[in-house]
Amino acid sequence: MSATPHRVFVARLVGLPVFDPRGDQVGKVRDIVVALRSESNQPRVLGMVAEVLGRRRIFVPMTRVTAIEGGQVHTTGLLNMRRFELRQAETLVIGQMLDRQVTIRPTGISGVVYDVGMEQARNRDWVISRVAIQEPGKGLRRRGQTHIVEWRDVDGLTRREDTQGATHLLAALTDLRPADAAAVIHDLPAERRTAVIAGLNDERLADVLEELPDEDQVEILQLLDTERAADVLEEMSPDDAADLIADLSPETAATLLAAMDPGEAEDVRRLMSYAEHTAGAMMTPEPVILPPDATVADALAHVRNPELTPSLAALVYVCRQPLETPTGRLLGAGHIQRLLREPPSTLVSAVIDDSLDPLRPDASIDQVAAHLATYNLVAAPVVDEDGRLLGAVTVDDLLDHMLPDGWRDQAARRTDGVG
After folding, report:
1. pLDDT in tens, 5-64
2. For 308-392, where are the alpha helices, taking DSSP H only?
3. Which of 178, 271, 275, 308 would be 207's cystine partner, CB 3.0–4.6 Å?
4. Which residues does UniProt assign to the signal peptide (predicted)?
5. Model confidence at 404, in pLDDT bands (50, 70, 90)?
6. How far apart are the C-alpha atoms of 219 and 198, rounded to whole Å?
7. What domain range includes position 21?
């Protein structure tokens, strides 16, 4: 393992790609598993938790790691694909050790763990060799002094706390995409998950909720007080919020809808009024809508919104007033590829596709799939009997509803025991 650095800090490993001997990426690092035997025995690194296809979590023993270099982890490729389960004597570094209260024995300084360093011992085992600790902030200083010390100089590594914070765990999740952050949160112990949820802002929590399995969404929403739960639902896309509220008891759903902004709640109620697995139930009521006098420059400015998914940004819809759904009559749709070829001052209404057949809200999921496939679309408008735009169905909306309930977990369960 000559290519492997002498010491590696664990927080820098999270999210790194894992490759097999052929150079094919097989997953990403999600956490490190250690055995905290006692304060007098150096913690041994047992392996990595890696996420592979289907969001399956597998255990990669350190004996299978051949190199850690260039922002990559290389393995022998001989991996057991059985789903990872944490054993009683094991501890997750990111999920459980970060933010643990410890004391530096020689100085008596107390603080929290924000990272740990691991390296190979002479017997080739990987062990925890350093602990990075941050003191509480003092006075006007928001961040306290940091220390990197030998593991043997730290008291409290093996002690588990009911009131453990989540500051540094949240920092480790900051740069992850919502789907990746959701995957980490899904596997956290209950008390750590609660601390993380409390520390996420409403917008970030909404993004993460949209990526979690249905049962996790319900469980997390029930941890929040009514006001915050309503705020988070408002930050979610209306179709995802409608799906989540539909999984709640009627009493809880009514309470949350009443606490939401009236306009946001109205969009959710409208989506919930359509039969399940229809275009109306799965559509997004907030596509890019423009008036007939909008220019190509106006359209391009709207689709630059970083909050739009690629499929929503692929089409703009030109409608008569009002421009809030349900709009005035839909005049047509502008394909972003066509708009990019036009002068910025051109009116969008002059280059719209008015031959694009819209969907009706009662169209079945099979009809929606056939429509998108037939016309090679990533999105399509949904209109009422008067031709007013109600929303747009995107290919990602379709996939979310075509895949079986709990597909994020089922993909892993179907192949448990392989390898």
Report:
1. 578 999 889 889 999 988 899 999 999 999 987 777 888 999 999 988 767 889 999 999
2. 336-339, 365-374
3. 178
4. none
5. low
6. 14
7. 9-84
What is the Cα–Cα distance from 201 to 108, expressed in whole angstroms?
34
Return the CATH number at 382: 3.10.580.10
Q: What is the mean pLDDT of residues 95-109?
A: 91
What angle (nearest 5°) sits at the alpha carbon of residue 322, between those of residues 283 and 266?
50
Residues 382 and 343 in one domain: yes
**In CATH, what number is assigned to the domain containing residue 18?**
2.30.30.240
My answer on whether 317 and 395 are in the same domain is yes
Report which of residues 56 and 416 the model is more confident about: 56
249: left (phi over 0), alpha (psi -120 to 50) or beta: beta
User: Which residue among 69, 84, 99 closes a domain?
Assistant: 84
Pick the closest to residue 46 from 66, 60, 30, 56 (CA basis): 60
- The predicted-structure confidence for 213-268, as pLDDT tens digits, reads as follows 888 999 999 999 999 999 999 999 998 999 999 999 999 999 999 999 999 999 99
The radius of gyration computed from the CA coordinates of the chain, to the nearest angstrom, equals: 25
231 and 293 housed in the same domain: no
182, amino acid identity: A
Is there a single domain that holds both residue 294 and residue 398?
Answer: yes
Number of domains into which the chain is organized: 3
Of 304, 28, 6, 14, the C-alpha closest to 130 is 6
The gap from C-alpha 90 to its chain's centroid, in whole angstroms, comes to 26
- Report yes or no on 364 lying in a domain: yes
The model's pLDDT over 342-353, given as tens digits with 9 standing for 90+, comes to 999 999 999 999
CB-based contact 144:111 (threshold 8 Å): yes
In this predicted model, which residue has the larger pLDDT, 410 or 226? 226
The DSSP output letter for 101 is E
Same structural domain for residues 239 and 304?
no
Q: Are residues 264 and 294 in the same domain?
A: no
